[in-house]
Amino acid sequence: MRQVALNTHISGKFNTELENLRNSVLTMGGEVEQQLIDTLKAIRTNNAGLAEKVVLNDLKINSMEIQIDEECLRIIAKRHPTASDLRMIMTISKAITDIERMGDEIERIARLVTKNKLPASKSIQSSMLLIGERVVAMMRGTFDALARQDEQSALQVYEQDNRIDREYKRLLTYTTEEMERSSEGMQDWLEILWALRSLERIGDRCKNLCEYVVSLTRGQDVRHMPLENMQQKIENLS
Amino acid sequence: MLKLFEHEHLDVKRLSDEETAIEVRNLSLQFSDKPVLNDISMRIPKHRITALIGQSGCGKSTLISCFNRMNDLISGCRYQGEIILGGRDINHKKENVSRLRTQVGMVFQRPNPFPLSIYENVCYGLRLQGVNGRRQLDDTVEQALVDAALWDEVKDRLFESAQVLSGGQQQRLVIARALALKPDILLLDEPTSALDPLTTLYIEELMAGLKKRCSIIIVTHNMQQAARVSDYTAFLHQGRLIEYSDSDSLFTMPHKKQTEDYITGRYG
């Protein structure tokens, strides 16, 4: 674990700017995590009001993305960061795009409740909630790894996506079979499929963030490679 | 909507008198027949760092030298327009220039300590003003050196020659000498161009702390420094003020193409 020290620059203002930037992305991550928790609660209790709140709250997350992006631009223009500082800012700039897209996926899931399109089948609903809980845990682990700049934790979280993918595929097969059995309610099934796909995509976004954590702490680009190769690459650096 | 970052961006075109340290009104200046500044009008904010940037010969050093009438020393210098400081036009012939220069301190590119002790360097201006009380001098010297972030390094050798100090220490000593007179405005003419990068960062950090005490105007060739250290930036070209705004805007989205070309290293 090689943390980027944010508070050791000669310029106290630069320290503060980087610290604020880091805190802001964690705040944004926390907001999105809470959005998913609220969405799952809304599904569980069929609470359209809560789901509506989630949909509206997505605007706040969009605004956070824009503000953090502008701050990254401002710091690059004014501070000309290099090395770990530059990696930190680029990591944050990329991370917020993924976090904002997580927010969009969550909004889509919440609309299942606002449009009263929750699956009639209790078993599908509970499977969906189960994947949702796993995704929440993955998000929490991801933001924690980002906050602590801990690439080992990031790799452990990265692995969790395999399980989410497996459960998603199982549910996908089940719902497709249901759709083949009867064309009735096809539109509703599609809505459910999209929501499941959104949950799976949030897991993928978490994987992207985990890759950024490795890039931040070790300066190595580990995108587009299997987990074993990522681990090997990091071990070779040690 | 939640606001994640707070950045103050005063509109320098609409500063009130209370917010203004110096107001320049239609200032033009010639050396003999050569025009150097051309109809410059601007308000420089109080307790902020304002950077003047531009190519060599664009008039930025000449402009800050107007703020404490240093150009008076150059023969053939003529100017029109007003510079308002504390409600008065400092270009007025009745202006007390000695008093003006205590109010507006200046630090140059090369550190220029006098061939005296560290202590005497700092209290030089006070002695010229007739202050001789030991206690008052001691207190002022200490405070000025603390403010210039030099006290800890020299407190045990105040009566040694200032010439033995390093370049960075000498520059901070010169800043302390200016601060001892409690200036309202501190003019810095390329104060770090003769210093190494690390010492430069220490001086910049010092500036950030000093702006609580006075308004700072810095001339620099180093655009990165202007971006790092300043709150507001003015870009001059061939004696004209091309663009003047908060540094965040100027360095991320300048309005004038000439500014964009200059700060991005293009030829206009």
Description:
The complex is a heterodimer of chains A (238) and B (268). In chain A, helix 1 runs parallel beside helix 3 (83-114), helix 3 packs antiparallel against helix 6 and helix 5 packs antiparallel against helix 6. Chain A has one domain (12-237): Methane Monooxygenase Hydroxylase, Chain G, domain 1 (Up-down Bundle). By secondary structure, chain A is mainly α. The model of chain A has no long low-confidence stretch (mean pLDDT 93). Chain A contains 7 helices and no strands. The model of chain B has no long low-confidence stretch (mean pLDDT 94). Chain B has 268 residues and is α/β, with parallel strands linked by helices. Chain B has one domain (21-263): Rossmann fold, CATH 3.40.50.300. In chain B, helix 5 crosses helix 7 (167-179). Chain B contains 11 helices and 10 strands. Chain B has a 6-stranded mixed β-sheet with strand order 6-7-8-3-9-10, sandwiched between helices. A 4-stranded antiparallel β-sheet of chain B has the order 2-1-4-5, with helices on one face. Chain B has helices spanning 60-66, 97-103, 118-122, 124-128, 134-147, 151-154, 167-179, 197-210, 223-229, 247-252, 257-263; strands at 20-31, 34-45, 49-53, 77-85, 88-89, 104-107, 185-189, 215-219, 232-237, 240-246. At the A-B interface, helix 1 and helix 2 of A face helix 8, helix 9 and helix 10 of B.
